Amino acid sequence: MQKRVVEIQARSAEDLDYAFDKLLQEQPDLYFKMEEGLEEIQHTVLLVGEELEGASGLAELERLDRRIEFIEDRFEDLESELFNRPRRRRKRRPNLFDFFRQATGAGGGGGEALDPHSEIRNSAEAYDVLGLEGGASLTAVTRAFRKKAKELHPDSRDGDRSKEPQLRKLLAAYQYLKSIYNWGEDNPPQANP
Fold this sequence. Notes:
mainly alpha, Helix Hairpins, 2 domains, 0% strand, elongated
């Protein structure tokens, strides 16, 4: 998501420069409309980027993902008007949150829910999948999970879904530790073989 935020910021700045160079003299009304819309997008994207840095839960990340999609749609509308071309249809990205909901059985949507514990037999295996030592804190577990999930997700791999089995196992490890751990920093689960 951070990559999408940066991309929108860069493109909106380029479009604002283009609008200034091409429209200010010829079509000042359109320029001022574009300037207002693009500055609004830049401001909103900046806020989303700040929220993204502090996001801590899947629900919060899902909300931010929906906001980014809305911004991308609004930005596409402005660009189509700025460049006087038909609106392009954006390719919808695979939704990470739908994948997690299906994998954990949450949401009750269509498709067969996976048992997140089926691939993980003990905490040692879960820590190993996450690349952590036994007894890691909630912060370390969450950070490792997010980092690896981002690397394995089809969005980061140009739609390549070949790493989905590893992503499922990663999710299973995270859910396993989360289910047995009261997340008290004084009492993390130890890696028991």
